[in-house]
Every structure is written in C-alpha cells, then in structure tokens.
Amino acid sequence: MSQEKGPYIPYGKQHICQEDIDAVVDVLTSDFLTQGPKVPLFEQLVAQHSQVKYACAANSATSALHIACLALGVTKGDVVWTSPISFVASSNCALYCGADVDFVDVESNTGLMSVKALSRKLAIAKQSNNLPKVVIPVHLAGHSCDMEAIDKLAKKYQFKIIEDASHGIGGQYKDRPIGNCQYCDISIFSFHPVKIITSAEGGMALTSDESLYNKMRLFVSHGVTRENLAPEHSNQAWYYEQQTLGFNYRMSELHAALGVNQLSKLIDFVARRNKLADSYLEKIAKDRVLSKELHSITPSNECYSAYHLFVIQLNKPEKRLTVFNQLRANGIGVNVHYIPICNQPYYRELGFKPSDFPNAQSYYESAITLPLHPSLSLQEQDKILKVIRESL
Ligand SMILES: *Cc1c(COP(=O)(O)O)cnc(C)c1O
Which residues are named in the active-site annotation (predicted)? Predict the structure, then answer.
C-alpha cells in the first residue's frame, strides 16, 4: 500500500490543557500533597454531576471495585457474576475478597450483559441454591446496560448490583447520568488516561446508601477513622481507631486536582466523542464496501453514550487479523476490547473455557476498536477508514 505514514494515532488518549498543568503545579506548592481539600472537592463534584449523594475516591477503579465488593460483604463462599467482555478488574475484585466468580454471556450485537442470559442463569442458580451475592454489569464503550431490567431481577432474586461504569462518566441512561445509582447499590468510574476524563490513575465509588459509603471510607484508608468515636476519646486529639482491615487505596491531592479540572471539560469531551462517533457512522453507512463488510456497536435509544470506545465488528471475522495488522502497519493504534476474561490463563485454571460463553467469544472474534478521543481529527478518521477499505 502506498500510504503516507504520518504520526501514530492511538485508540484513546488523554486531552491535557494548560489549566490541568497549572492545577497540578498549584498543589505541589501547597501544604497538602495528600489528604488535603482537593480529594473531597473532586468527590463532591463527581457526586453532584452524577446526582448521587456519596462518592469515595480511590487510587484506581480497580481499588474502587474492591472496596465496593467489601462494603457489600462479599467474602469466601459468595458468588459474584460479571460480564466476560470487560477488563479483568471487573471480576478480579471478587477474587480479592475470596469469593467465586462466574460470568453472564453478552448480547452478540452489543457486547453488553444479556438480560435473557442473566434471567436464565438466575433461574438455574436458584434451583441449585447458588445465587450470586453481587452482579457487576459493565457499560461497555460507554453504552449503558439495560439497568432497569437487571434491577428488576435483583429485586426478584435478592442480589446487589455494582455498575462498572468505568467507560460511562458523562453519559446518560433514561435521561439521568450514568452511574446515578437509581438501579444499583454502588457505581464505579475510572480516571485512567484512556478513559473519558483522567486523574492519571484514579477511580471513584458512588452510592446513595450512607452505610455503604461509611464502609468504603474505612476500607480505602486502612480501616482507620477519627469519626464517631466513643465520648471518652472526644478530648484526645491524637486518637484514631482501626475498626476493620482496610487498605491504602487513597487518591492523592495531585491526582484529584487534575481530576477536578478535567471534570470541568467533561460535557465538551463527551459531545466531541459523540460527534466523532456520528461521523464514523455516517461515513461507514455511505461507503459501499464498509457498509457491506462491517457494522458498528451503538448504544440503545435509552442511552446517550460517553463513547469511551468506537467498536466495529467485521461481518467476516476471518478478515479481522489482516485488517487489524494493516491498520497497525499504517500507524493506527487500533485495539480489541476485550479478550473475554474467561479466556485468560488464570481464569482457565479456575475451570472456564471460551465455549462456555459463545456470544462473548463471537463478539470478541470480530471486534476492532477504532481510535476515538477528543483530539482525533476528521482527516485522521478518513485515513483510518481508507486503510480499512483497502485491506478489505
Ligand atoms: C479501565 C477499567 C477498569 C479499571 O480501571 P483502573 O482505573 O485502571 O483501575 C475496570 N473496569 C473497566 C471496564 C475498565 O475499562
């Protein structure tokens, strides 16, 4: 192919402005590098944006998922279900607690947890007295799962819900912010640099339940507190108490300051991502070859997606390797989201096989994630689609 090489186009990346830099530098010269005012401010602003009462920041979404499971009492002997089409953190969090993990197959056209598969699996689990304690749906690509239906099943079968909304901040479901906890007990955001907004590393767990919030606060910081202590300690300013076995999962002030400034750009970032996604969809629909050879993963009518990822699926999966390699050879940083978690060697050791979740397997085999981030240009989009067309 006689393609101009040009600069590398990653599938996702952060968008940093001078104000982000200034915000971090200001913290460096302030009194607090950790445990100061920026983390509570970031928590308050994310809670407000998401229309949820409480938010607990952590040093990653992985840590946030872990403390969410702990707050819901997940422990040895419990079972937690999640989607196989996700990052490994969505299920590792349950293993950290000593629980067993199982997966619910996805819809083959969206990669989202299938309500039908969930419903069927619950009916069987009830008969064998092996119902999950927690189910973790994942809003893949920023497209919301059918949370209303999943919540109905939660009430029927008495399980708790953690929404892994790592891809979802800035999106909406049924005209409310994704992660708003109307249909779950705890929701999780990630602020890794490839996600919608970033704090470099960082995550947050949101809930409208005060008692879950208090538990997460303890778990995020050693299980130690200085609040609500017995009256005999009220005049002892040095006094603190370890009430449970927690971790040091705290977010630093530097990370929170970056997060606060990024949050002020969230609406613009998501609008830009939607504009670029619409442009991809339009260009693909208009192209005779592309519209015949592939289709795109899009959100349901009830969802305004944060569009963390733009995923296409090749109608002939056997062409994926060639297309993928041609894109990479042309400096286009495509990726695949995700290799089913159950396919990972560690999970195979636990007894899972790719054939256990056939929709997840077929979704995986035909998927390619195309570049999508706020600084992607329409010209770059044209180049990406041209390489795909030529390699097909
Ligand atoms: C990125 C991601 C995580 C983990 O986020 P970190 O902040 O990197 O720990 C968890 N779940 C999903 C679906 C993710 O995409």
Answer: 195 (proton acceptor)
| Residue 314 is assigned to a structural domain of this protein | yes
**CB-based contact 48:59 (threshold 8 Å):** no
Q: How confident is the model over 158-196, as pLDDT tens digits? A: 999 999 999 999 999 999 999 999 999 999 999 999 999
- Residues taking part in catalysis: 195
Q: Which atom of ligand 1 is nearest to the CA of 191?
A: 7
Q: Is the residue at 87 inside a domain?
A: yes
Are 260 and 252 in contact, with CB atoms under 8 Å apart? no
Tell me, yes or no, whether 8 lies in a domain: no
Select from 46, 188, 192 the residue to mutate for testing ligand 1; criterion: most ligand atoms less than 8 Å from CB: 192
- Residue pLDDT, tens place only, 106-141: 999 999 999 999 999 999 999 999 999 999 999 999
Planar angle of CA 17, 19, 24, nearest 5 degrees: 105
* 77 CA → ligand 1 middle, Å: 25
Model confidence pLDDT, tens digit, residues 286-331: 999 999 999 999 999 999 999 999 999 999 999 999 999 999 999 9
CA 302 – ligand 1 centroid, Å: 24
What is the domain-level CATH number for residue 324? 3.90.1150.10
Percent of the chain with pLDDT over 90: 96
Inside any domain, residue 7: no
| Closest approach atom of ligand 1 to CA 63 | 9
pTM over 0.70: yes
